[in-house]
Amino acid sequence: MSDRVGTARATILGRLRAARPPATSPPSDFDVLARRVFPPGERYPRLRRKMETVHAEFVETTEAEWPSAVIEFLRAERLGTLLYGPSTPAGRRLAQVWPSGAEGDPRLVPYDRPVETMKADLFDRMDAGFTTTRGGIADTGGLILWPSPEEPRLLSLVPPVHIALLREAEIYDTFWQAVRVQKWASAMPPNALLISGPSKTADIEQTLSYGVHGPNRLLVIVVR
């Protein structure tokens, strides 16, 4: 019985395919995106303005001073622990200048173990997580995150505060431009991310709430 059903199904589908003209995809037209260009001096102000409307916070600094900016923010907000990727260039810079452990100083915690062995630390003891970015998007306002074994997704997802490092020179006009310039078609991670602000939802009684599905604060450290 099943063989006859399968044969009948194949016959019907074959007739339908034969009766339908071959489908051709229309050519892609990205002109509207290619024309979406901003003067270089407007990219960062535009990104910041759009991200601040959804509660992102910003600290401007320099290449030499950004590690100190991270430390000072943690001290000012009385955040006791920062989780980071120790094998990234930015992670190594943080470790080099981190305070030696005086009373009241925040503690730098490496994400260097499988998640199964550090769940208690990750979910119960981390005040903030630090990640780098692959740049920003001026058009819509957002950061590009590229999770990897060196900087797992949980760094930006679990701690209540997410601190992200962004270089002004790496802000793109549009997401389309970032994808082309960075050659995403040749290699992508399983989970590329665009982040515009802290986690938010309005699922419950249509009331906007922050921090329900992730960090309730996003601090962008901007290297200018």
Layout: helices, strands, pairs:
Elements: H1 2-19, H2 31-34, H3 40-52, E1 57-61, H4 66-77, E2 81-84, H5 89-97, E3 107-110, H6 119-125, E4 128-132, E5 136-137, E6 142-145, H7 154-157, E7 161-167, E8 171-172, H8 175-181, E9 193-195, E10 200-201, E11 209-210, E12 217-223
Parallel strand pairs: 1-12, 2-3, 2-4, 4-7, 5-8, 7-12
Antiparallel strand pairs: 5-6, 6-9, 10-11
Can you give a write-up of this model?
The chain has 224 residues and is an alpha/beta fold. Helices cover 33% and strands 21% of the residues. The strands form three sheets. A six-stranded parallel sheet has the order 1-12-7-4-2-3, with helices on both faces. The longest helix has 18 residues, at 2-19. The radius of gyration is 23 Å and the shape is globular. The model has no long low-confidence stretch (mean pLDDT 91).
